[in-house]
Amino acid sequence: MPRRTGGFIGHRGLQAPDPPTAVTPTVGDKKISVAFTAPSDVGDDAITGFNVQSSNGDGTISAISNASYDSKSFDVSQDDQTRNLTFKPDGTKMYVTGMTGDSVYQYALSTAYDVSTASYENKSFDTSSQEANPFGIAFNDDGTSMYTVGYSNDTVYQYTLSSAYDVSTASYASKSLDVSSQDTTPLGVTFKPDGTSMYVMGADVPQSVYQYTLSTAFDVSTGSFASKSLNISSFETNGWGFQFNADGTKCFVAGNYSDKVHQFSLSTAYDVSTASSDGVSFSFASQDANPNGLAFSTDRSKMYVLGTDDFVYQYTTNLDSYASASPVVVLGLTNDTAYTFKAFAINDYGTSAPSDVSPSATPEPAARALFFGGYTSAVVNTIDFVEIPTTGNASDFGDLTVARIGAGATSSSTRGVCMGGFASGTNDTIDYVTMASEGNATDFGNLVSNNEEASACGSDTRGIMAGGASKTSTIQYITIASTGNASSFGSLVAGKQTPTALSSTTRSCIAGGNSSNGNYTNEIDYITTASTSNASDFGDLTQGRQGLAGAANNTRGVMGGGALSGDSDLNTIDYITIASTGNASDFGDLVNGGDTRFGSAASNSTRALLDCGGLSNNKMEYVTIASTGNGTDFGNLTTQRRQYDNGASNGHGGIAA
User: Fold this and answer.
1) Where are the beta strands (DSSP E) in 222-332?
2) What is the pLDDT of residues 9-63, one digit of tens each?
């Protein structure tokens, strides 16, 4: 019989489970997911949970993803277009907004915070004199003031209740705050407990939560925009619910596009500008595929979702409970700090001995890819973005200063740059954006000369643009952290139009394209990024082509798609070892089929996104750079469009060693 290592000795001997094994960390942004194998010997009772501890005690495993449905619900079909909900702090009253009756409806709960015990009290308040489409609802700290917001007038309205928490006694307080300068489709409202800050969820693009300062607590007429917001568009594009935890260090966003509630951490309590995603969520889809409202009990142990079927569903959050299975996500870690982990199994008799220590892991921000401009039925100024370690469809980032196609794009760890392109003609415009925050581009400067259908790459400090219109051999460069005009770098071995380009931290490679002799070339050139000089011959692609797209980590470059002479699409992916010279090797094939020319690419240290957009598609796929094999579907761009290799990321090979 194998020796047990259970961690608790009771009156019947060793009764706690054995420890977990094979503890394996996977890094994220300020978090690490810790996977493990549960013990086969569970002791004298079933395992009830698992705990994970970091090497220095940092982090928490409190996550909304641990929530569970209570199998309790309540029909609030007094209105057939219900929109949001809230509770009296003691859990004995519930309030729901509805658009059909333009009203707030009041319910009594015979057991606090148990919606299955709710009943309609035949009490309501009609808001149509102020707002014909009430969505969000909130109360002040003693129930003598009520607040609604909706998109008819884009205004938060304040009401006085002569009997606390009794909506039938409400009257308009002649106090309001117009929020249309921030958002013209406000859907939710909530307050900091002391009433000095108010938060409005808006549905305009990009969807965001906006923060306001109230100089008199809970008096919206004294409110002003605090110039602080949380962009949630990469998580939810139709959000309705927004709430904080009890101390303002966490917030939760829910909506009916993702059918999930998403969790964020705030480094400064109740300051939404300091929020960052915890990378955890909980799906409501098994109860309602289109949730509207979100509310919590005062202690945050219970969560409530209002569905489009006009039912309120009740959940236990388990925010203060142990995880039920592997993996366990440890949140609140410090990026660029190394951690190891131990895992523990728990049953009713006690906690196991610790597992063996995991390998070291260092959390880091998720690399983001941006795709600039392009052509649909016309030239567009759209900028899309995705988080490279994930999968899913792109979200809107903002707009270029000038709509264009055929621009070159590169980036540092903090700034993305889009250079040149074709608008009403070939232009020399250089734009820049801050990678981590969505918004419109800003003018950077100008190229040495007008250029389009070039390709760009670079390091964390320098951007390179090579080749382009009229099969030029020109190479230009910029210093990404500054602003100003580009400078001459040198020349390619031969001119190329629609090549691709990629970089390690020291070297940049430019491959393929329509060459100056009229052929679709297989030539690969290289330069030392930090220098200025003419390019040298690196080797050849497996096939000559134009309109391919490439990306890299610090050691390997991958290049996919393109068109052969005769303009037939090619699905081949090649790879090179950037520090060497020599011909490319076969990596695998693109899988999305057809239209593989004129797409874009971007990468982080492990993954390359290829075939992003193209001649007439909006698809994206990815490969693992260190391996070989065929692509895997990633998701779609916001619109179908031709791009000409104008993707950039804040984690590509020119940045990350």
Assistant:
1) 223-231, 239-244, 250-255, 260-266, 275-283, 291-296, 302-307, 311-316, 328-330
2) 433 335 889 999 999 998 887 889 999 999 999 988 899 999 999 998 888 888 8
For residue 49, give Cα distances in angstroms to 16, 33, 34, 37, 66. 12, 16, 14, 13, 11
Q: What is the C-alpha separation between 351 and 492, in angstroms, rounded?
A: 65
**CA atoms of 298 and 247, how far apart (whole Å):** 11
Q: What is the pLDDT averaged over residues 191-218?
A: 95
- Beta carbons within 10 angstroms of residue 336's beta carbon: 8
- Of 13-17, 251-255, 381-385, the poorest mean pLDDT is in 13-17
Contacts of 566 (CB under 8 A, 6+ apart): none
Which residues are paired to 200 by β-bridges?
189, 210
Task: Pick left, alpha or beta for residue 98 (phi over 0 → left; psi -120 to 50 → alpha; otherwise beta).
Answer: beta
pLDDT at 285: 87
Question: How many other C-beta atoms lie within 10 A of the C-beta of residue 588?
Answer: 18
The number of beta carbons lying within 10 Å of the beta carbon of residue 39 is: 21
pLDDT score, position 365? 76
Cβ-Cβ contacts under 8 Å for 498 (sequence gap 6 or more): 406, 453, 455, 467, 512, 513, 514, 546, 547, 598, 644, 645
Q: How do the residues of the chain divide into helix, strand and coil, expressed in percent and rounded to 5?
A: 5, 50, 50
Output the CA angle 62-67-68, nearest 5 degrees.
Answer: 155
348: which residues sit within 8 A by CB, 6+ positions away? 45, 48
Name the CATH topology of 370-649: Neuraminidase (2.120.10)
Q: What are phi and psi of 506, to 5 degrees?
A: -120, -25
408/496 Cα distance (integer angstroms): 14
What is the residue whose two structure tokens read 């202690």? 299
In whole angstroms, give the CA distance from residue 231 to residue 202: 10
Q: At 385, which helix (H) or strand (E)?
A: strand 379-387
Decide: 123 and 147 in contact? Cβ < 8 Å: no
Class of domain 9-61+326-351: mainly beta
- The number of beta carbons lying within 10 Å of the beta carbon of residue 311 is 17
CB 449 within 8 Å of CB 428? yes
Burial per residue of 162-196, b for 16 or more beta-carbon CB atoms within 10 angstroms, e otherwise: eeebbbeebeebebbbebeebbebbbbbbbbeebb
Written as six digits, the tokens of 497 are 């139009």
CA dist., res. 571 & res. 464, Å (int): 27
Rounded to whole angstroms, the Cα distance separating 300 from 387 reads 30
How far is it, in rounded angstroms, from Cα 204 to Cα 42? 51
Token digits for 1?
A: 């019989």
Query: Is the pLDDT score of 517 beyond 50?
Result: yes
Positive or negative CA dihedral for 634, 636, 640, 642? negative
Handedness of CA 449, 451, 454, 459 (dihedral sign): positive
CA 386 from centre of chain: 7
Per the CB < 8 A criterion, the answer to whether 501 and 457 are in contact is yes
Fold observed for domain 68-316? Methylamine Dehydrogenase; Chain H (2.130.10)
Domain ranges of the chain: 9-61+326-351, 68-316, 370-649
144 burial (CB, 10 Å; 0-12 / 13-18 / 19+) is middle
d(CA 652, CA 555): 11
Structure tokens that stand for 212 in this block:
């306001």
The pLDDT value recorded for residue 653 is 93
Q: What is the DSSP string of 391-457?
A: -S--EEEEE-SS--BS-EEEE-SSEEEEEEEESSSEEEEEEEEETTS----EEEEE-SS---S-EEE
